């Protein structure tokens, strides 16, 4: 993206985040927000935060499974560290895709193939979102308040799930055929788009017929998203916020997808709006919902800072290694 366009995009995102925060906070009782946070159970908050580390290992295991299916391997702790660095870039750049770029780069260092590295991270992300849709659809069967508030919610989730199933069928069953067709089109009509598409489809075709691998990846995705939802449920208990557990299995997936939309700065403003909207269905005040959103985002920032520390150590180790090599050559 050219610099002027990038600057305009960042300004637009700042306006969205700032506008939403102004709208939500103009009538807020800040004393209620801060009292809700101050009275939180510290032990439950600590438990909720520790669940992040479990999530790191589940994510790294899923990533490792995808790498191994293509004949590559990497130590689990190396992938955990890479994921933590990715969180740093996701949280402190004006776009959440910064973390995915870090993981693609680290995958490329292992695989030495850009399209295969992209495919690994894309599939990793894709199965995570699909798992969220599964939880939300099942929970929605027991929660009618959400569909009354947002009538389009159920059809949107169903459409998303159907698209995911279609994508799985096309990519993992017909990737070889589509890759050949793309190459044929490239031969007849040279075009960088067809060339890139062909490379990606060849990378995806590696997973064709690997039912065991894809099943393991999906199960790990379900475990990861369950861990995420339970993390947020524990925060509600810590803050004394009364939202039914089954409702959280709808609210958290919806909030996660909404916060991924590239229309704000790292979900700021969107996060608060989603929780105010859905928590209000159960009699939770807007101030309490904002307190919940701020605690959750505070945890996100802390794990981002931990990722920054890991990144600094990695840079220092690389610089030290280069210095030692130069010294030995002299």
Textual characterization of the structure:
The chain has helices spanning 3-25, 30-38, 42-69, 76-92, 97-111, 114-140, 144-149, 153-188, 192-205, 211-239, 245-260, 270-279, 286-329. The protein has 330 residues and is mainly alpha-helical. The protein has one domain (3-315).
Number of domains: 1
The portion of residues assigned to helices is: over 70%
Total beta strand runs: 0
SSE string: HHHHHHHHHHHHH
Distance between the termini: 42 Å
Q: Spans with pLDDT under 50 lasting ≥5 residues? A: none
Tally of helical segments: 13
Rg from Cα? 22 Å
Q: Which descriptor suits the 3D outline?
A: globular
Task: Report the biggest beta sheet as strand number plus sense, adding barrel if it closes.
Answer: none
**Mean pLDDT, as a whole number?**
83
**Structural class based on helices, strands and sheet pairing:** mainly alpha
How big a fraction of the residues is strand? under 5%
Task: For the structure shown, list the relevant keywords.
about 325 residues, globular
Task: Provide a brief overview of the structure.
The chain has helices spanning 3-25, 30-38, 42-69, 76-92, 97-111, 114-140, 144-149, 153-188, 192-205, 211-239, 245-260, 270-279, 286-329. It is mainly α and 330 residues long.
């Amino acid at each position: 993206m050219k610099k002027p366009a990038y600057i305009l995009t960042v300004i637009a995102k700042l306006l969205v985040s700032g506008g939403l925060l102004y709208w939500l906070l103009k009538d807020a009782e800040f004393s209620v927000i801060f009292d809700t946070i101050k009275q939180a159970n510290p032990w439950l908050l600590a438990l909720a935060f520790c669940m992040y580390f479990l999530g790191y290992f589940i994510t790294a295991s899923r990533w490792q499974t995808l790498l191994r299916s293509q004949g590559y391997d990497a130590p689990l702790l190396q992938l955990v560290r890479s994921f933590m660095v990715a969180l740093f870039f996701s949280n402190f750049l004006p776009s959440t895709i910064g973390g995915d770029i870090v993981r693609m780069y680290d995958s490329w260092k292992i695989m030495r193939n850009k399209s295969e590295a992209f495919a690994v991270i894309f599939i990793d992300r894709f199965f995570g979102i699909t798992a969220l849709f599964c939880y939300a659809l099942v929970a929605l069967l027991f929660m009618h308040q959400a569909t009354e508030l947002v009538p389009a919610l159920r059809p949107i989730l169903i459409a998303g799930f159907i698209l995911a199933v279609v994508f799985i069928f096309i990519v993992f069953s017909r990737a070889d055929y589509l890759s050949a067709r793309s190459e044929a089109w490239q031969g007849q009509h040279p075009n960088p788009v067809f060339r890139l598409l062909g490379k990606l489809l060849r990378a995806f075709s590696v997973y064709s017929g690997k039912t065991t691998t894809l099943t393991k990846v999906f199960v790990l995705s379900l475990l990861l998203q369950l861990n995420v939802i339970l993390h947020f449920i524990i925060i509600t208990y810590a803050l004394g916020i009364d939202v039914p557990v089954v409702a959280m299995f709808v609210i958290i997936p919806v909030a996660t997808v909404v916060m991924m939309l590239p229309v704000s700065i790292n979900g700021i403003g969107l996060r608060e709006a989603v929780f105010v909207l859905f928590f209000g269905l159960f009699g939770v005040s807007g101030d309490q919902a904002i307190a919940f959103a701020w605690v959750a985002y505070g945890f996100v920032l802390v794990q981002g800072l931990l990722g920054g520390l890991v990144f600094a150590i990695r840079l220092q180790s690389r610089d030290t290694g280069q210095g030692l090599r130069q010294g030995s050559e002299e």
